[in-house]
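Box 3.1 A note on notation
Throughout this textbook, protein chains are presented in two layers. The first layer is the amino acid sequence; the second is a token string describing backbone geometry. Keep the layers aligned when reading.
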Amino acid sequence: MSMKPKLETELDILEQLESGSVTSQLSLSKRISVSVGFVNALLNRAIQKGFVKVSTAPRKRYAYYVTPQGFREKSRLVAEYLETSLQFFRKARAEYRTLFEEAIPSSAGKYILAGSGELAEIALLAANETGREVDGIFDPAAGSEKLLGLTVYRELDLLDQTAVLVVTEKSQPQALYEQLRLRFPYNQILAPKFLRVVGNSLATHDNVDAAE
């Protein structure tokens, strides 16, 4: 098992519990590649702080649930992780570049960045490097008509329904993803893996529980 930083492991635990696919601490340790002892210690801490609830399940197993407080903690940890990672810019640029390179273009061949700020700048740089056309930025809270030289859209109804949306929201990427899913199919919403968006097809994990 590899040794991961505590912050990254805490994020991995909340992400896996949020997905609803965890059946035991052993399966969780396999999924995130850390020891069972480390998982146990961090999971107990999360339960004590009210981030996770546990109930008895059949066959002497347990069911774990992320609480509303736990969802907020995950968002805080994601923001902290992005801010403190020394390799953040390089990693983000590489993942967005790969995302644009591997994405199936929409019929219009256009992309819209979902979220403004540093990630939007990095994603736009990656798009330019790969020859992808970014048509605008979706940000309901934006105070300007233009950002990064792009048109700002504040309402989902104004977005081109054939465009591909690229998540560039740092503080609440999961909430934004779920908002976009109300109007767009999952294959038109892309998010890099480092944002840890549950439900995003690019961030799924292999099912190691299948053999249990």
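The helical segments are 6-19, 25-32, 36-48, 68-84, 88-102, 118-130, 173-180. The beta strands are 52-57, 61-66, 110-114, 133-138, 146-147, 150-153, 164-167, 189-190.
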